[in-house]
Write a structure and sequence with these properties.
Shape: globular
Order of helices and strands: HHHHEHHEHHEEEHEHEEEHEHHHEHEHH
CATH superfamily: Aldolase class I
Radius of gyration: 19 Å
Distance between the termini: 22 Å
Number of domains: 1
Strand content: 5-15%
CATH class: Alpha Beta
Helix content: 40-55%
CATH topology: TIM Barrel
């Protein structure tokens, strides 16, 4: 097992010993082996969704725990294939993406329609597929940021996927169209019995104010999570909260003093607890993203993110570049370290 305390270093006591006094864990619908029966079953969803959600929870090293470890590889479109796969050219081949997810003990592999379609008959029965149906591509010049549908829910269903994923850039001028598109897509996915996962990201240059980037502020990302749950996302993918006070700094929208005085603090676990609260108190699971690869510090950073997510009441992590932009054995080690956090009895709910 991974030495979690050693990797957390000077932050170990603060992160592992913190007690959340902002929003009590008693109010949360926490992950667990009975999550589908306890939280998902009461929803207005078909039995097929319950079956596929349980399929996700039963797979990989975290099988039966109620937590998720997902490998996302859609960066070939979002960031360009060269930028994504030059560090390890093995992953130009979609088969190796699936192999990493399997060897790494993941609950599912998340990627583009093209990646998963190209190897579906070899791998769809070996690891659950999560097909990302929309993307932003940066070959258009000058670059602009919009999520465009690259595939349909029916295409994902026909290849045997258990889940579909999509991104909405909340706060962007295009967000209203994206909300409508993905709401309709998620409705159809649920009709077919598929799980829905939303990348609930913020995107607006105005969210950078006086030298501070509020795209990861707890109050703004929390509202993005709430909007994601509103359109029927079963699982919400969100960047882990860093900082707070976006509404007050930018001076727009609506908030309340208690958000900052009582419901959050400066502690990272409390900031992510607010993100969980906005996912209907955990009725939609919160998974945090692993972020970019920065080299030697990736392992420690991934474990830190997982500890904060779990202690806040989150459902898991979705980590891609930190895993696939290095030799496969090291990628497996990193994924296993993330999973060790969720398997550890020493990392409890704050």
């Amino acid at each position: 097992m991974t030495d979690i305390q050693q990797l957390l270093g000077d932050e170990a006591e603060s992160l592992l010993g913190h007690t959340c006094t902002t929003i009590s864990s008693d109010l949360l619908h926490l992950p667990g082996e009975d999550y589908v029966d306890r939280v998902v079953a009461p929803k207005d969803l078909s039995p097929g969704v319950l079956r596929n959600m349980q399929c996700l929870f039963n797979h990989g090293r975290l099988g039966g725990s109620g937590y998720l470890s997902l490998l996302p590889v859609d960066q070939g479109v979002e960031h360009s294939a060269g930028a994504s796969f030059a560090p390890n050219p093995l992953y130009f081949d979609p088969a190796n993406i699936c192999e990493l997810a399997i060897e790494g003990g993941c609950n599912a592999v998340a990627s583009t329609f093209g990646v998963l379609q190209s190897v579906a008959r070899k791998y769809a029965h070996k690891i659950p597929f999560l097909v990302k149906i929309n993307h932003n591509e940066i070959l258009s010049y000058p670059n602009f940021y919009d999520q465009t549908l690259f595939a349909s829910v029916d295409q994902a269903f026909d290849m045997g996927a258990v889940a579909v994923g999509a991104t909405i850039y909340y706060g962007s001028p295009e967000s209203r169209r994206q909300i409508q598109e993905i709401s309709e897509a998620f409705e159809h996915a649920h009709e077919l019995g598929m799980v829905t996962v939303l990348w609930a990201y913020l995107r607006n240059n105005a969210f950078k104010h006086e030298g501070t980037d509020y795209h990861t502020a707890a109050d703004l990302t929390g509202q993005a999570n709430h909007l994601a749950a509103t359109i029927g996302a079963d699982i919400v993918k969100q960047k882990q909260a860093e900082g707070n006070g976006g509404y007050n700094a930018i001076k727009f929208g609506k908030t309340h003093p208690k958000v900052y005085e009582e419901l959050t603090s400066e502690h990272p676990v409390d900031l992510v607890r607010y993100q969980v609260a906005n996912c209907y108190m955990g009725r939609a699971g919160l998974i945090n993203s692993g972020g970019a690869s920065s080299g030697a510090g990736d392992l420690a950073q991934a474990v830190r993110t997982a500890v904060i997510n779990k202690r806040a009441g989150g459902m898991g992590m979705i980590s891609g570049r930190k895993a696939f932009q290095r030799p496969m054995n090291e990628g497996v080690q990193l994924l296993n370290a993330i999973q060790d956090v969720y398997l550890s009895e020493d990392v409890s709910i704050a």
